[in-house]
Design a protein that fits this description.
mainly alpha; 265 residues; Four Helix Bundle (Hemerythrin (Met), subunit A); homotetramer; Helix Hairpins
């Protein structure tokens, strides 16, 4: 019986398994819609009350599901501390958190994270592949990106402070260094709200430098990820896999498997 | 006779065929100009009336053309449901739609889509190639881009809700979750209108994270498309293999095998 | 004597030639500075008068230079209609244009284009190479970019009109289709001034789509240029040039020249 | 004794050396926090006074450290004029600069630059590698980027002036050419504050061109850096050549020659 439940709840290959996942997704979208409706201004108390009830219904369903999951898996702790388990938990907590701090229950939108399992249902293993390819590319370039972001942050802090020193006497909104650093982020990322903008000649000159920098250095993360994704662009095409060792990733001009030395088909 | 018409209306190689397409394009640009003039404020009724008449003239021409097209093609249904056929229909509908809902007739700008056939007239088969190359690259990377966009959307929903929880008490415009999600899109895409902007320290901190994320993850679609476009050079190889050493990967402009120096077939 | 002048004015290898070019650059920067000063608000008439005189001095020098250039070149017409000749002419016209239309004389900033010859003086042939590499990459991808921009323009027109239909009744600034198309450009390019921004739910939804589109399709031009620049990244490194036919661009794993079949050194 | 100090202060491999660097980082973050607190509005004088004292304490520590560094290195001048030495000096100067010009002492945030040594402590030689890889890529493409930026600047100046000529009569904020050039930067980099925005039809048309240009040419720096970063894979090859067939281009993880199948040395 636990076996059956396991197949239904954790599997996505059987009909009931698919159905189960599908129901979950419907519930998730449903609960997110509730929260959004709830946030809309000037709603009657009755309306609000009903939404609240509906939300608790969904939450309790998820709670039950979570408990069942813990019950049926062989290694509960492994599941609980797995990414999947944490996401499942995050889908429940907010409702209870909402009892303590008003508003926080809206974090149930974290359930949206569970929507990512839609790929599993649609049997889009291909999609998963693509996803994991992207993921691998990002992981492979995490160090480079780390160094890049760290440097950018240092840059942002310095630029922000300089702008504060230059503009703080003006009415241009640079009221403190943290605010100026916020402006620095807004500008370097080319978002540019305009709620804070330099008015002095010197400030605008420095701002121009920040902008051109931001415009130029975006090339760096792009380059990093592109190169990572680009590793062996034509690999799969020519030799899908060595018929002996089954390893992939041979160059298009490879004649022998570079891992086992056997001739490639 | 149907044959003749077919060559004229569907072909673009004969003189009359080119002329026909050219007239179409002139008409399209003409009708789009009409709509734009019409939208300009404080115009006299007479002026408006004339534009209206002119527009109906163009529309009726397109209607006749559409009917003729259906009449002369061998498989009418296939044409009607082809991309081309739908675009042709979209160029007519709005005018009639306008009778029901005022303003909607301005959708005649959808005719602009027909302008893309300009490439055919100019005999820019080369352009078509380029276009289809881009298209293939986008199609080839649709799965990766799909996964990417889906993830980004989930991210946007969560970020938007968090901002709503943080900023909703302020006068900063985060009046509801949908609005906050809209802000989330505006910020993540680095558009940054500034009509909605965080004012609390916490809100600005979260906003900064969203911006840096948006600034960084743009690298992903860029990387995907670049790699796809980059595949081409190794995908289309003129010489599949040297007939002597059988080695692949020769460039288009190669005359001799770059491995054994023998002439390539 | 004409010979001498030619070497001085057109050459940049001899000392006097360098000096001449250097003087030109100083004059250009000087005249641009004049225009900028002139544009600054609340300046006295005397101040204005002096600037005016200075500007005419510079202009007359350039005029003389231009005439001399025409006089000393063997094929005057070829020079006049060459990119260089047109740029030189553009540096003079505005001053006279200013006599007819006030303000237009400020177009003397077009002289800035002549600053690009700074590379020649600094003997930065390397720089020129780099520049022409970029140029070649852009030229090679002009067709792809053309198709891309044309499609984007069609998209912008349609999106702009849709927004006009949706928002024209609001106070959100979509007063006409041209204005809405302008908004469309501002948004798709992720500039986002915020002077015009949707206020209706439907408008904001459509705007979000435009933004995400703009955010995604920037990948296309980037991909195109990157691939063009990336053609044979490691070419030069291994085989600078075939010692027989002198052709470059051999792959790093090439053993024989792929053009003449001779063994590579 | 100087030896010992040298190992502690300049080295990061020994325990004391690590501890020393760690203390430095803590002090840096501490002093930056002080400056930020100080910049916050409406703080009492006492509070300000205390922060001031704390800052001087940190500064004097850094001063002592700097002197010691000079004292213990064999070639003081080389250290003083090295990037590291200048950064260390920049961390001290502002405090004293602040005595002369109020506010400038906030430039102590320049100490943030010293945070980059965090990589050393964490023994993240890998990170340093990544960093220097990025650095090499940027250095290798500096010429191309130089040409690119120079051209962009010329473009910005011309566009800015044209906008000034068109919009200067309006209330749209184009009060002078320098301001218009500032707008030009804000727009071309797609930052788009909106504090200055064109209002005339002609101005908005020109602005649209600037935006699309800015949107398109960002492809250039991205392409440059990507290609440079992409060179790496073929630059650092583990197996220079197969000892049997002498063919190059083997991947890092290759065990056998991919051309002749012989084991690689």
């Amino acid at each position: 019986m636990r076996e059956k439940l396991f197949v239904i709840i954790f599997g996505a290959d059987t009909k009931p398994g698919k159905a189960f996942d599908l129901i979950l997704i419907v519930l998730i979208i449903f609960s997110i819609t509730i929260v959004m409706l709830e946030s809309l201004p000037d709603k009657s108390d009755v309306f609000y009350y009903r939404l609240n009830v509906l939300e608790w219904v969904v939450t309790s369903i998820f709670l039950v599901e979570y408990i069942v999951r813990i019950w049926i898996v062989r290694k509960p702790w492994r599941y609980i501390f797995s990414a999947l388990g944490i996401i499942d938990l995050l889908a429940i907590i907010p409702s209870f958190l909402g009892l303590a701090f008003s508003g926080t229950h809206m974090l149930v939108v974290l359930r949206a994270l569970r929507l990512l399992r839609i790929f599993r249902i649609l049997k889009l293993t291909r999609y998963m592949d693509e996803g994991s390819q992207l993921w691998r590319a990002l992981v492979a370039s995490r160090k480079k990106i780390g160094v890049f972001i760290f440097t950018v942050v240092v840059l942002i802090i310095i630029m922000g402070t300089m702008m504060y020193i230059i503009e703080s006497n003006q009415e241009s909104g640079f009221t403190s260094i943290p605010i100026s650093i916020y402006w620095s982020v807004v500008t370097l990322t080319t978002v540019g709200y305009g709620d804070i903008a330099p008015v002095t000649a010197l400030g605008q000159t420095l701002a121009s430098i920040v902008m051109i920098m931001g415009y130029a250095i975006i090339a760096v993360p792009t380059g990093i990820v592109t190169v990572e994704l680009g590793r062996k662009p034509c690999a799969e095409i020519i030799h899908p896999a060595c018929s002996f060792c089954g390893k992939k990733g041979h160059d298009k001009d490879a004649v022998f498997c570079k891992y086992c030395g056997k001739k490639l088909g």
